[in-house]
TrEMBL record:
UniProt KW keywords: Activator, DNA-binding, Nucleus, Repeat, Transcription, Transcription regulation
Family matches, as PANTHER family: TRANSCRIPTION FACTOR MYB8-RELATED-RELATED, TRANSCRIPTION FACTOR MYB90
Pfam families linked: Myb_DNA-binding
UniProt xrefs under CDD domains: SANT
Location of region: Disordered: 149-171
Organism: Abeliophyllum distichum
The name this protein goes by in its record: Transcription factor
UniProt xrefs under Gene3D superfamilies: Homeodomain-like
Length: 231
DNA sequence: AACGATATCAACCGCCTCGTA
DNA sequence: GTACGAGGCGGTTGATATCGT
């Protein structure tokens, strides 16, 4: 627990404070946030300085409305990662975790809930939650082959109480089902995307050099760290 | 025009992780 | 092994803007 120093200013930042912080970061670079208030001559705590920089002052921050593409990507990633806003925002150039979180809470959550409500009236969906996995050394989807996606993932279940062959197969099925659900069920404007059974990880390299599928390495990291934690 | 309800978003808080001594 | 501090994250709050009556 970090206690806030007594007498530290709170609340909205002034133009003057912004300028001081900008100058300080320009001069010393990002990081060493504990030194920033002193260096910048700001009566703010380190966290406040960091947040102001990351969410507002940093160059290349994209302001303004989220595009339908961004909305769609956020929904997909949220379905996959949950409230891992920093991971999600890492896939949205120019958007901060705070922006994504606010946008989700004020817009997308309702959209998704409404969609799911509509769906639950027509059909009952079984939600399969992913469990931590150990992937074999070369996971099939970790390659950057953009032409094929086969959710036939070869895994071993570290959580299984009885890791028999049959349960392993069942885990395979669950995992496959989970990936399929993810890829199938996100619709755009009420319609499944054309051309691929709803799978829209059609991978188009963007100007900035990243694409939807580049999330695979993060997800692998995520899964492997989760796995380490459990073991 | 006035007022309450609702939406938006910047900022804060508390917790967790990691590096280091 | 552990205590401590810094960095980072997600949840929540509160001020302000916008909308509806």
């Amino acid at each position: 627990m970090v206690s806030t120093p007594v007498g530290v200013r709170k609340g909205a930042w002034t133009e003057e404070e912004d300028n001081l912080l900008r100058k300080c970061i320009d001069k010393y670079g990002e990081g060493k946030w504990h030194q920033v208030p002193l260096r910048a001559g700001l009566n703010r705590c380190r966290k406040s300085c960091r947040l102001r920089w990351l969410n507002y002052l940093r160059p290349n921050i994209k302001r303004g409305d989220f595009t339908p593409d961004e909305d769609d990507l956020i929904m997909r990633l949220h379905k996959l990662l949950g409230n891992r806003w920093s991971l999600i925002s890492g896939r949205l150039p120019g958007r901060t975790a705070n922006d994504v979180k606010n946008h989700w809470n004020s817009h997308l959550q309702k959209k998704v809930l409404a969609r799911e409500e509509g769906r639950s009236k027509s059909q009952k969906t079984t939600i399969l939650k992913p469990r931590p996995r150990t992937f074999k050394r070369i996971a099939p989807f970790s390659c950057r082959d953009k032409t094929t996606y086969e959710p036939n993932i070869s895994i071993t279940d570290q959580n299984s109480d009885n890791p028999s062959a049959s349960s392993s197969k069942q885990v395979d099925d669950e995992c496959t089902q989970w990936w399929s659900n993810l890829l199938d069920s996100v619709e755009i404007d009420g319609e499944t995307e054309p051309g691929s059974n709803g799978i829209s990880l059609e991978l188009q390299e963007e100007d900035n050099g990243w694409n939807d599928f580049s999330l695979d390495m993060d997800i692998l990291k995520l899964l492997s760290s989760e796995n380490k934690r459990i073991n």
